Amino acid sequence: MAPHTSTHSLLTPLLSTFRSLSLSTTTVTVRKPSTTTSRQFTTTSPLHAKPSGKDKADPRISLIRYHLQHPKTPRPLKLSRMRALRHWTIHRAWMLARRTRQEGEERELKRMHQSMHNACEALRTFDAPGKKDAGRLYRIAMEKKGIFGHGGIPIEYARAQTDTPAKEAWNHDWVR
C-alpha cells in the first residue's frame, strides 16, 4: 500500500493542475440543430427493432459478396507508389488527349455552323433591298419541302414527346 499512496500523492497535484487548466480553457459551445445536418435513418429505438434480422440475409448483399469473393474474380490492383504515379500520369495524358480531340471536334462544328450562317446571310442580302423579291433565295432555302418524304412530317411530330412510355407498347393490329 505504501507505493500506491506515494504515487497517488504525486499524481493528485498533477491531476489537479490539468483539471484546472482544462476547466479554465475549455468553453462549452452549444450548437443549434441545423436543417442541413443528416438525420438518423430511423426513429425506431433499437429495442423495438426486429430481432430476426441476422438469420435472413439480403439477397442483394449476398450477390455482391458472391461476385466480389468468387475465386475467378480478379483481385483488385494494389499499386506501388511508382506504379500509381505512372498510372496517374497515363490517365491524365489520356484525359488531355481526349479533351483536345473533343475541343477540335467542337471547333469544327462551330466552323461549319458559322459557314452555314454566312451562306444564309449571303442569300438573304443577295437581292437589292426594296425589291419585291428581296430575300427570295433565302426564303426558298429555308423551306422544308420534300425533305421528310412525300407528305411526310418530321419525326419529332410523329408521337407526342413524353417522359413515360406509351400505355400500349406495341400495336400488333397495325397494318400499312
UniProtKB/TrEMBL annotation:
<protein>
    <submittedName>
        <fullName>Uncharacterized protein</fullName>
    </submittedName>
</protein>
<dbReference type="InterPro" id="IPR042831">
    <property type="entry name" value="Ribosomal_mL40_fung"/>
</dbReference>
<feature type="compositionally biased region" description="Low complexity">
    <location>
        <begin position="31"/>
        <end position="45"/>
    </location>
</feature>
<feature type="signal peptide">
    <location>
        <begin position="1"/>
        <end position="22"/>
    </location>
</feature>
<feature type="region of interest" description="Disordered">
    <location>
        <begin position="31"/>
        <end position="56"/>
    </location>
</feature>
<dbReference type="GO" id="GO:0005739">
    <property type="term" value="C:mitochondrion"/>
</dbReference>
<keyword id="KW-0732">Signal</keyword>
<dbReference type="GO" id="GO:0003735">
    <property type="term" value="F:structural constituent of ribosome"/>
</dbReference>
<dbReference type="GO" id="GO:0032543">
    <property type="term" value="P:mitochondrial translation"/>
</dbReference>
